[in-house]
Structures are given as structure tokens and as C-alpha cells.
Queue: 3 jobs
Job 1
Amino acid sequence: MRSAFPPRPRSLFTGCLAAAVAVLVAAGAGTAAPLPAPASAAGTVLPSTAAEPAAGTAAATAAAPVDLANWMGQRAAQLHDRPLNAIAMPGSHDSGSWSIRPGSGLCTSGDAYDVARAYPAVAASMARTQSGSLVDQLDGGARVLDLRLCKQDGRWYTYHGSPLGNLFFDADGRPGEVAALADWIRRHPAELVVLRLSVTAPAAELAAARGAAADLLMDAVGRDRIAPRSAYDPQSPLGAFVDAGRHVVVMGDGREDQRGLLWPASDSTDRGSYAYASLSWYDYLGALFDSAGAAERTYASAVTLDDLALNWPQSARPTGLFSLSGLVTPDLTVPGAVLAQWGAAIGAVPREVADAYMLNLAHGFNARFLTLLTGPWQLHPAVDQFNVVMTDDVNQNGAGVPAGALQRAVIALNDVARQDACGDPEGTPARPGRTVRYQAHLRDVGWQAVTGADGAGVGTVGQSRPVEALRLSATGTGGLWVRAHVQNVGWQPWVRIPDGGTAEVGTTGRALRLEALEVRTDRGTLTGRAHVQGLGWQPRTRGQEIHLGTTGRSLAVEALALAACD
């Protein structure tokens, strides 16, 4: 499982810079490409509740103005018993990059060193993704920090790609940035902080450096505050950490930790939302003449990956931490960064803009991201799966994003009513003995190995792959009736599924899409939702008889979920 906070790979950072600069050199100097235009609006705000909550209740706490530096403690009554991986919390991408400046040096073991030493100003401009210090980011609401450390000449620095940031651990009588980080943690015992650690060093030192960095970090923070993986996991409730004073999680880079302290990177997933680049020479050449358009395409690509990650149909909720990547890769915008440097050299572009091109790119995306957080994602079927939301520039204030707006929008997702598969409030007693199971037959795949049950999804999202048939069974329902609407066939006859029995609807071997499904129970109610070609997830429907999908529109059902209710 890929880490939720992966470093930008050598092939991306190196390839972007090398190819872009090569294209620009071949094309010759020109005017600076325009910077991506920021969005004009920050989106709508969460609606207020109709009734004023009683003082002292969890609802009243949630309705209070958000104190970003203390928001977990402020919501203690609401979040105390909620699993860590079911809490929506802001995260900071490449947290230590805030201190990167032109001329601050290069990490010789960094994944983009070869290119960065040839084009240091461009590398620094694309490497900085935060504007505030680690303490500023924590005060701004971030509770997951993406710490990338480079060991160089016996000292430890933050870095990104190759450009170096501040000294992180104390050295030569100079205080490192970790001191301020540890002090903040000590002063905020009600706030749980996840420190995601990745390390680079010369090859001969790398294995030892990983363990040394973790030890130095835990010593600085205080080992009595570390939540050991041997005693806690992503599904442990927030209160279990805070009540025991174990309010710091240190997540390593996936290597086994014999002491049981570090959490492995496999405890977290991004479900493919991290936007890696897929570039060609012609992409770069086109971006030379359409820098703003390249930024828009990059934004759209990132949002598409986020939608796919949220619509992942294989489980009702991840068992580990789930990190949604609210960020973009440099991708096609690198030519614009190069041209901005040239523009600054001739006075056509402000130097402060040219030296923070990635931050400017992030500002445009953050404005769009905010409209999703405060709008359609509140009603998303996966709203109960929002966990870590990673963003660039946690402390942004401008370009359509007022200070703290992104983080407040993420935190507010904790206030949206969380529901079980039947649409009942989370925590509703289970329905023993009432289960619907279902398996999908997909075009060009056949029967999926996974069998869904009790609201878990089957099928695919984002692959344009129709469901062609379903195999269903049920217990505790008194029996089911089911029929399917099939391409070129229409409604098939009703099929009776006795309690404990199994039946199939749809077709196999004929390449005919399943377009709609009707299911009826003899006892209680059912609930379900379908992901329809071109429409996405339909709203959940519930009743003794439910209808999923569409008819008369030639649209395939691509994924679905069912559950037996009361």
C-alpha cells in the first residue's frame, strides 16, 4: 500500500525540470508566462442548524467558533469516542519546505539533486509548498505534518526534492526547528499530532539514518507522549490517546520497527489521490504557450483523482488512516516557473512571485478545493470517510482563501451527521442476522473476487466498466425479490431469492450492460445506491422496495451497494 504522503519521485521532479528547461532553451528566451489566475470566490459556508444546541453538549461545542490551535480539545465531547481514522483533520504537505529559499543549499542525496544543482532557482521555486513555520501550521489547524529530512555533513535539515530548508535537529550549538515543534506539542496535550517521517542520506548512511532520525524526533518530543503502534492503531478512539497522554504518532517509512513504537506507512493510504505526473515532450511544448491553461488542466486532474479516491467502492471505510491529497504536482506548470525566473531577471515578474511559483500554483488550486469542501463534498456518500486532508500552504490568506478557511472547512466535516449503511445515525444498534450479500460480474473482468455486504460497494469507479450481472443472497430478510433492466432486453422477470438462497440477474457472455435494478424484501426495509455512468453516485434510497440506476437513458450501472435495514 502506498504511503499517504509520498515524496515526489525522481522521475517527476527531475523529468519535469530537465525536459522543461531543455524545451525552453531550444525555444529561446521569451516573455514570462502568466501565472495561474486565482479563483474569485472561496465557496459557500456550511449552513447553520435550525435549532440552537443546548449549552455544554457536543453539538454546542461543534457550533462554536473554531479555535484552530486547539480544535481537538474544543471538540473533546464530540470526538472522544470517534476512531482516529474517522476524524476529519487537516494535514500539511511537505511541512518543512516553508523555509526553502533560493540559495539555501541542496541535499546531495535528494531525489532531484542532479537537476536542482543545474537549475537551483527553479528547483527552489517549485520545492516550497508552505508559507508558515511548523508552529504556524499547527496553530493553523494542521494535525498531520509531512516531515522530510536530509542528513548532510552530519547535520539534519528539512528538504523537498533537493533544496534544503532549516536545520531540524540541534547542531553546532544552533537550535533546530524541532525544539519549537516539541514545545508546541507539550503546550497542547489535548491535540493529537501525527508526524509522518521520511529520510534521505548518503547511501552508505541511509539505513542507520532512518533509525537515528526517528530516535532523535521521539527524544525531542518526549517518548512518554508517543503512542506506540504495539498499543494503538488507526481505529483507536481519540480519547484513548489523549486520556493516556499519548498524543503523538510517529509514522515511519514502512520499515519494520522492532520496538513497536513507529507506525508503518502501510497504516495509511491515499487511495490513488496523490497526483503523479504523466508527461510527454509535446505536453511541455504546449505548456510553453499556455501556462495558465496548463495549470487549469493540472487542477482538473487533481480533482478527478480526489473524486475517484472518495468513490472507491471496495470497502465501507478504510481500516487505516485515509489521506485525501488536496494538492497538485508541478506537472505542466514547470515551464511557467522557468519563464517566471527569466521574467524576474528582466523585471517583468515580481521576484517574490518567481521565487514562490509552487505556492502561487497551490493558491489557485486551494480556492477550487475549498468550494468542494464547503459544497458538494458535504453531501458526498463518503462524507463519513473523510480523514486526513493534505493541503499545500496551510496558512494561505488570499487568492480566494481567507486565513484558516480550508482548515475550518475540513474540521466542519466532523459536524456533518454521520450515518451507517442504512442512513441511520452512526452508532445505531446493529441488525443481527439481517444481511444482504452481492457480487458483480464486470465487462472484460468477469465475476469480481470481492463480495459486498451491508453497504460495502462492488463494481468499479472511474474505469468506465459496466456491471453486467449480479449474484445476490440474503439472510434474515424473509426472502428477496429482484429484477434487472438490461441493455437491449429491458426488464427481466422477477426472481425470488428465499432466505439463505442465492440467485443471479442480468447476463454474462453477451456484453450487455445492467442499467437498473429493483429489489424488494418481504420483511423490514432495504437501502442502496448505484454509481451510474456519467452521473456518479445516486442518492441513497430506502424502502421495502428500492430502485437503483436508470431506464431509457442507455447508462450503465458501474458500482452499487446494498444493505438490509430494520
Job 2
Amino acid sequence: MTPLQKRILEAVKRRPHTLRDLQNNLQVDNSQLRNTVTAMVATGLLSARDGRYVPGLATLENTAAPQAIPCTLVKLAARFGFASRDDGTGDIFIPGRALHGAMPQDKILVKLFDRPRVEGSAEGEVTEVVTPHNSFAGTLTVTEDGRLAVEPDGCRDVHIILQKDGANGAQLGDKVGALLTSRGNRHADHRAAVTQRFGSAEFASECAKAILYGRDVRQDFPPEVLQEAAAYDNAAIDPSEAAHRMDLRGLPIFTIDSAETKDIDDAISLMKLQEGGYELGVHIADVSHYVRPGSAMDEEAFERATSIYYADKVIPMLPTQLSNGICSLNEGTDRLAFSCLMRLDEAGNIHSYQFVKTVIRSRVKGVYKEINALLDGTAAEEVRRKYADVLPQLPVMQELYEKRLELRRARGGMEIESDEAKLVMDEQSRCVDVIKRTRGVSECMIEEFMLLANQCAANAGRTHHVPFVYRVHEAPDEERMEKLRETLKACGLNVHFQGKTPTQLELSALLDETRDQPIRIPIHTGILRSMQKARYSPEPLGHFGLVLKDYAHFTSPIRRYPDLAIHRILTDMLVGQPHERLVTNYTDFATRTCEQSSRQEVAAVRIERDVEDCYKAEYMHSHLGEVYTGTISGITPRGVFVALENTVEGFIPAAQLCKGEPTVTEGVRLYDPLTGRHWMLGDPIKIKVTAADVPLGRIDFDFIPM
């Protein structure tokens, strides 16, 4: 805060001041004063009331500091909002009157109410906006009294009034980027101006651009990053570097990815040993050789922390000269790699491993669909010819995978079913179809082999006691387990666990027992909700879901910064850096990487989900009036969510289902006391598509009695 800002705040804390009052009291240049006051209003340091300035929400004294909870506002509607606790322990419901003008992505402090309206829920009030987030995206609309306003994305019926001449040429219905030019203590008191126009809100591609703008996603790389990346335009590996590495170009190494993948960062090789057992090689692009500490590319990669994938596009963590070029393990091209070479016994258990810097040459760009056809014997002859160099490895890969799958099941590794969608786009980037993704044997094989390399990387970090970046998944707490028990009871199951927290074997058995039953969806959903969120941690806390003591992310350094960080640490271990130097160089680095990567991962998942919802709504808009049979996928007091076979989800209001006031049991059953009818997660239900709101990513259904 500047000295002038401090003087202004001291003045308005004593009493409200007009601009003239401030000019007379502070005796400063009028232009400087106006600019400073305008900036302070925009950032929430000041609020304007009837021409007088008072302390803004960002400067209010926090009278309950010990009880204030640092949060981020993640959801805003006309009469309520939700704040996500920064420590990841859950969301807090904020009634409209208690929001005090807080906006999505604001960093806020929240004080919990002693007596929430719903017993056991977390409900509170915004006491301070610590870091205002003044840019947002939305749709240009008009209020009931005829004023131009922007409805922020995801904030239904919230209208931020535009200042005079604030439309800047945008038309009604346009997707726009906007900036708060002044903040009040209510959303109705805020004022904004349009800073960017994207196009019609009817198109999901324009909505996607707006979402990225509203989340401050940088789609272009800074000039200094592009300058560094330009050195790798059409680059080949350095022969002198290759000469110092283990040369594996003679091995039948190959990649397996989806057909459209361009950033290929993992390859495999597998041999069955004469003495029994297997030698598995997982070969990962040596990104850390090119992205050096302190470089502009490294700093940008740290800030992004992850690539963002949506529809048919990607916002890469690294420039394309690396992600699609020198670091991509392209077919028939020499590449520098960081290889994990593992020996496994006849049963598939890891016997030993080593990490080594290598040079490789992929024999073929494998495609999941083609590999699956080769494994099940349905591949055409031309496909068999394509894979001639690696064909003998495929049955051995399947054999090892099946043994690894047995081991995973024996230790209780959980297989929670979830549906993923594939969006089919036309040449204008319009969504013309939504298809449920299916996973074949090859997808599962690659996942298991990558998991093995990740396990070895974490083991190397833990056993050598060096600073590291672990992927952790902690055991559920007792509160979550109690909710799971209530869910199981609501499903009619009287399950007894041996301890307060069920073991992975117990949960895995429950998943398997209900996999083909009608109650599969509520059981799998309930168990998923009971889990903690996976995150990155500098401490080796293990992975509850995978039932592994050691787990990290090593296999995707092109698109995830934690993997790049691990490569850097393991590289220094390989060259014999003293333990003390490793501790000095990487302790703070590992902690910062875990915090930033966990934060950015959550943000990226939200962006990908919200953008996907827009594209699904765009697709369903051309199917209005059509009738489908779906499955109840979510239950709230307001109504039920219904998922169609293609993963599209829509909402049916409770008023269409119930004549009386509905009651909800543990989020799995909706009951109408007047008619005695009830609906449960997983029940089939017939619907008609009635509305598809593209900018909101919302689809509405009507209930049709079967």
C-alpha cells in the first residue's frame, strides 16, 4: 500500500469523505488523488456511498481473526454462494446477505455461524476480501429496469451493472470479458466495464474462451519463454549428449496413446526373461534436460503447473517446440529419455529397479484402438504389418498386466466406476456428438505400467530421504465414514466394518459385490464421496485408493510440473549430488511445487468440467423435445439430476416429481410424503429435453411417467 493510500484510508476511517474533502484535507495533486481513489475502489480498499468514500470490504477489521477461515469464493448465485476452504477441507455455504459483494475467485475470510440453518452443515459470513478478483467473464444482458449488465459465468441471476459507456461495442447476448471498476458492499452496487468481446454466447467455443479469461488462464507464452523455445525449432538431439547415455535404440520400444495425441511423453518395452520373470522399461521424455531451473520456461511451467485439455484443444504447460517437438517421443526419431528399468518376478512383483538417462527411438506410434484389436484378434492385416517390430511384446504385456491386476485386487485396490465423455467436433468447433469413452485392455495396461514407474520413483525418494514431490491419497476420516455408513443404510445395506475406518479390501469387496446390481451407482458414488482428494505433498503419506506405500507422478513431465520436478531431483541423485546439497536445493522447492501444483490441478479440473458442460449443452440444444431414458445420478431437495447413456446430465425440478415437500435421505433417496413415491440414485427414468443453456452449461429435463 502506498503512503497516499494509507493517508486516504486513515481519513475515511474517521468519517466518510467526498473527493473534495480528501483534496482539502490531504493537499495532493487532484489528478493523482482521483487516480488513486479509483484504483482503491476497484480493488476493494474503498467503497463509494452517495458520493462519499468509506473503507471497503478489503479493509474491514476482522473481529474474529482466530476463527476466520481462509477461503476462495467458488460459486455465486442471486441469493447464496459457496466458499471453498483453502486447506481443502470442504465448502461453506454463504447466504446472500452474508456475501457482502464478494465475487467468484475472491480470496476471502469467512466466519462460521454458530447456528446454521441446516444442522451439521457449514454456513458462514464473509468478513474480509483479502485479495479481490476483479476480472470476470459473462454474458451481456439487460436488467428488468433496462440497464446493461453482465451476468457472470456460472452465476445465474446475478447482474453486475455496467458503468456509463461500459459496453465498449458489445451486443446483447455476447460473451464478454469484464472488469470491476468499482466495488460496493452488495453486488448491485458494483460497476463494471467490458474489456474483451468473444462472440455469441450460443456457441460453446466462445463460452470456453470466456471461461478461460474469467479464470485468468494464460493461453499465450511470454516473449522470453518463446525466445527460449525458439532454440528448439525442428531440433534434433545433441549427439554428444547421447554419447554419454545408455543407448536403448536397439530395443523395440514403442508408444501407445490415443490417435490424436501429439505430446507423447511415455514409451514402453518389455521382455520375458529366460530365468523367469520380466524386464519392463518405462521410458519418459527427458524434459528436465531442456527445461532448466531458473529459466523463463521453467518459471512459466511452474506457474501453469499443468496442461489444460478441453474439447479438441489444449493449453500446454510447455511451448509446442518442446511438447510436440524435441520432448515428444515421436515414431522413428531419436529422443533423450529418463528410463525406469524394472525387474519383476514370475508373479509380477517388483524385484528391483533402476533409473537411468537414455537415448531411445520409438518403433511405432501405437494407438489404443489398434492395440486392442491386435490383442483380441480382430485387427486387419495392415494393422498387423504396422506393429510388426513390436508384435511379440503384446501378449507378454497382456500376461504381465493380468498378473499385476490380480496383485492389485489382492491388496484391495479400488476400481470405482466413473463415466468420461468424448466430445466430437466439426470443422467450426461445434459439438456434434457426445460419446462415452470406453477403456480397453491396452488403456488399462499402460495405466498399470505407468503406475509401476511412479511407484518406483516414490520409493527412490522415500528410501533416500531426499526432498520429494509425492502423490498422496489419505485415508478417509471418521466423519466421512459415518456419512458412508448412513448412505449404505439408506440403500438397504447393513454393512459392518471391522474397524472405525474400513480397509481398502472391505471397500473393494463392497464395490465388486454391487458392480452389476441396481444399487451400483449410489454405492460407488457414496464410496467416492467418502474419499479424501488426492494431492501433492512433500511427505510420503501413501496412496489409500491404490493401497500403495509409495506413489508419485513421474511419467508425464510434458504436461505436469510435479513430474518435471521429480525428474530434476532424481537426476541430481543419479549424478551423485551430496545428500546435504539435495536437502538444501530441494526442500523449499518441493514444498512450493506441491502447493502450486495441487492448487492449479483443482483449477484445471474445474475449467475442463465447466467447458465440457458448455459443449454438452451446445450438443443437446439440437435435441430439444427429444425423449430419452436415463439414470438418476444426483439427488437434492430441489430435484434430481439424470445422466443419459452418453454422459450428458440434466436436471428435473422436484415439483415435477413430488406433490408434497420432498425429503432427501443421505443424498441417495428422494421421497414424496403425499404420494408415497420415491426415487433413488441409479433408478431408470424417462425424460424429455426441454432446455439447454450453453453459457451456463445447464440442461433441463421434463419428467415423463413410464
Job 3
Amino acid sequence: MLAEQELRDSLTRSGSVNEQHLESAAETERRRILGQAQDAQKAYEQAFARARMEGRLLRLFVGVGTLVLLMLLTSAVGYGWSAALKEALTNDRSVSVKSAAGDAFGLLVFMILIAGGLAFVAWCVYWLLSRNVRAGVPAAKGRQLLVSVGLAYCSLAVVCAISVGAYPTEVAWQLRHDRPLEEVGGYGWGAWIALGALVLFVLPVLWLRRLARSDQSGQSLPLAHRIAVFDPRERNQAEQQAMAEWREAVRQGLRSFMREKISERTERVFSTELSIDDAPGLKQLRAGHEHVETPADKQLAMISAGMENGSIALSGPRGAGKTQLLRVFCKVDEADTAGQLSLVESVPVLFDRREFMLHLFYKVCDRVIKEGLGTAQEAERHKRSIRYLQTHSDEAALSAGWRSWNLSARKATSLAQQPQTYPEILDSLKRFLSRTALELDEKNRRVVIGIDELDRIEPAATARTFLNELKAVFDVPKCLFVLSVSDEALREAELAPVGRRDAFDSAIDEIIRVEPLDQRTAEKLLGRRVVGLPVPFTALFYCLSGGMPRDLLRTARAAISYVEPEQRITLADLARKLVNRELDRIANTAGGSEESAELAQLFRADLVAEHGGLGALGGVIHQQAGETGDRARVGATLANRAYHLDTVLRIFTRDLTEDRFTRASDPGVSGSFAALARAQREIGTADTLARSTLQRVRTAWSLPTLPPMPSA
């Protein structure tokens, strides 16, 4: 990892940390770093255990096949020579090797045909009696194979053991006494040889049972199911792929750890020039190992620890990090075998209650099978019922005839399984979750189900219906539901009105507010992605994004792309490029009514310059929008956007000194970066408040005064 270009450049820029320090720190934090890749490690361990078991099965099959072949050859050769000697001694002539070989081959073919016939009959009878076999259920097909092969194996074991014990002793007796074998003859120790041969046939069966009991693959599937899906060709490939995924997960965790350690040992760099032209850490928008803990994380951990079941909602504006918090919370507990069994599912845009419940049911079954819980076999049955609509047909026929007369009777029955109704699906899911949660409770664990992106449901009012449907499973003991929903969706769906209880209040037990990042947390988040980023640039990204983690990373990624290799870019130039990028986005992607699109066109670069810059653009927008109606409200939002971008350009210049930066970094002072970021978040939701905040910031920085908001 230390050979990567990014880390070498980071060490060079830092100067206060070396490779030996990183190696020592990584060794000290070895458990935490590997813990971040515990999901991938667990998947690799399961793949390795499956590969090891399949390897043992393959060796067992080869060993059993070799044993059966040797026993068959021994029996056939013994029989052939015994018969040839008897014939030669009776007729007083030399032994015919050809006759011995023919008798041996005949017995060999006879025993193989008998065993194969028994296996075929057992296979057909099992197919007729088992509906699951006809439906293609892997476990049933595996049992069919075990029964058929087992019957053939047992018949061969008995015949071969008797033959191995009898025919070689007959050969020895005839050679010793030089006369044909009488009706009562041979040696008594042949019975012990037969018993020993029978023991050899029993040992593979015992080994197979022991192999099934010692399975460490993490899946409590029956051995018959494993044999039915046994494919040696995929064994090594699956193991190698799981190993590669685990190594990559460890590398990502270690890379994040190194960035964090270098940033901790590097003082906050104050510079108005940026020379970093490559930041691989910014390529991933969501990375659990680079998650920065916020007050919402601590609150979620505290509240969830005090609840055995129920529901928790993560609310906040879009882009505040609700999805990241939800996934990190579930992922951490998923890796902790003493914690929770977790999964996260996103709500589809077009919500259908039956389809979503079936999908959730299927994913829960998948998770249970992956964990290898005691309810895994029940989960397999539920998965089949969800995936397939089964049809069972049974037919019986009787026929009798004599010469030209014929009498026949036939009876046929066909049963088609009807799709489950929604109440049946809900009841089955609750019962299955209850049994699974009860099993986990004995291990001090519980089930956690995350429902993400509730705000994607269209139309927005359908979110109320979704919660009413979903809350039917919120009362499962030892099962916790965590949902994420944006403030915008709450307002549109009227899920949080003042003064009365509604669907949201009655369905949710606890609400955790996910707030945007503060400036120091934003610096910490960027520090885990980019090492050595000067703090004025971090503040610039923070003010433009409003402290929203998603927008913060997007802004930082765009800023790095503007830096030319081996060159520097000043703070003022980068601020201008980022503002122009925002102007282009507003002018070209503004949706809504025609009036909104018309006003957004004023953000085109040529029109901004024609009207005297962003500071004067706000007044022009108000004049074009008027003072009443929806057009006026859109105009107020766009005018505030122009004033906010103008304020950013006027603050982040080459005249920004370290003293002024330090003062503005204090959120308690007037004109702080925190206030400027808050104004960005207020635009579009509380424009009057946003105008007031911008005015206080500009006053603190001695910038031109903004015109007041037009009266409605």
C-alpha cells in the first residue's frame, strides 16, 4: 500500500510522518482495520469452507469409486479363477485363462447390472412419489440421488463382501488340496474377510455423516441439497473471487486509515493555492470505511440499544447522509456476530405493497440462509413459494384386456397453487421473522431491517399508505426497523403536520434528526479522502455545499478536476470556476414551470455579465418575477442563489488572511462560514430567513448591502 502514488505524494507533502510510523500505527489498529472488511472476510471464509467441503466430497467420491471398483474386480477375479480351477480339476485338464476371464467378466457385468437396475428402480419410484422432485427442488433431488445411489451401494457392498470372503478362499482351498471344491469346503477365515470388506464399505458412509456435521460454510443446508448443486468446476473460481474481494476491502480500509493518520499528523495547512491534481479517495461517493461519526450516529446507537423492537426514522434534508448512516449502522452490526442480523432495502419509485413485501420476504430468507440459521430450511421453502407458482399433477391408470376386449380406467388430479394474498404474505413474514428473531435472541442478537429512500415513492402522498402497510410488521419481537425519509417528502406527503397525529406519528416510535455537517466535521470527512487539502479550500467547498456530505464530495471532486498537473490554482480562481459551474447548472437544469425556466435563463454567463454581475442579478430577477404568485416565490429563491454565490466570490479571494479565516471558522461569530453554509440550505425552503442570514454575513465582511425581500 505504501507504494501507491497517492500515499507517496501525501507523505511527501506532510513531512511530519514516515512509513515506519504508518506501519506501527496500522499494526496497532490491525483489528479495527480488518473489522471494516469483516463482511468480505466472512464471505471468503464461507466460500473457503464450501470449497473445502466440496473438495472433501470429491475425494470421498473418488475414494468410494476406487473401493467399489477394487472390490468388484477382486470378486470377479476370485469367482473366475474358482470356477476355472473347479472345471480343470474335475475334467483333469489345464486351467483355461480365457475361461477364467470370461467368468470374471460375466460376474462383473451381472453385479453392475443388478446394482444399476436397483438404482434405476429407486430413482423412478422416488420420482413418482415425491412432488418436490418433480418440481425440481434441489434438496429433494439430492435425496433422490442419495437414496438411489445408496441402494445400489448397499447391494454392491453385500454382494462384494460375500464374494471377497468366499471366492478367494475357494481358490486357496482347491490349490491346497488339488481337487475340486466339495459342497462343504473352503476355509473358515473367509467369513472374517467378508466382515472386513463390509467394514470398508461402511467407513465412507460414516465419513460422509461426519463431513456433513463438521460443515463450517455458514449455511445450514441439508447435505442432499449440497450434493444436488455440487459443481467442482465453480469451486476454485468462487473461492478466488471471494479472496480478491476480501483483499480489496482490506486495501480500502487500510487506505482510508493511512489518509486519516497522515491528516492527523499534518497541521491544518493554510494556503490560498492548491496543487493537488489527483484524489482517488473522492471517486467513491459512498464508502462505509470512510464514514465520519456525527451526533446522529451516537443518537442512533443509543436509541437502538434501548429498543428491542419497533421503528426508528432518520429524517433530514436530502443529501444530509441518511442513507450512509443507515448502511453503516446495518453493516457494522451485520459484521458483529454478537450484535444484529441486518439488511437494507430501498423503496421502489412505484410502490406496490404486495410486490414490495414479497421482495422483502425473499431478501430476509436470503439473509437467513447466508447466516446459516436454524430457520434456513424454512427460508428455502418460502423462497420457492415466492419465486414459483407450482402446479402438481397426479395420474393413475388401470388396464385389463383379453383378445379383442379391453377394459381400462384412469383417474387424474391436477392441483395448481394459488398466489398468496397480501394478508397471507404478511402473516407468513411476521411468523418467519418471529421464529428467526427468537433464535437470534438466544444468541443475544436481533433482526434489523433498514428501509431506505422512502422519499422516492411517487406520488409523495403514497408514502403515507406505505407506512400504514409497513407498520403491520413493526410489532415483531426482537425485530427493529430503521427508515430514512427526507424533510421534503415529509412536507409533500403531509406526514408531519402540527397539532395532530397522523400515519407518520402512529407508525414511528423514535425520530432521529440527521443534520448537515459542521465545518470541522466536513474537514475531517475530506481529510479521509484527500490528504493535505488546505483549509481555505475546505471552507469554500463547505460553504458552496451547505454542509451536505453528498454535495461536499461532489464539489471537492469538481474542484480537483480543475487543477492542472504540476500547476497550482489560486483560491479566487477555483471559487470562480466552481461558481460558474453552479451558474451553468442552474441555467441548464432548472425544471418546473415555464416561468421558472425563463427566470433561470438569467444565470447564463453572458446575461450575468450584461447585468453587472451576480450582485446586481438579484434585483433584476425580482423585477422580472414580480411581487405576487408562484413566479415571485421562484424569483426570491433564484435571487438568493445569486446573492449567495456573489458572497462566496467576494469572501474567498487572495485577500483572505489566516486571521480572518480563523475568526470566520468560529460558528459563534457573525459572518461565519457556518452561517454562509446555513444560508445555502435555507434557500428554497425559507427564503426570507436566507436573505436575512446573507445580509448579516455580508455586513460582517463589509460587503455591499442586499436589497430587502419584496413584500408579498
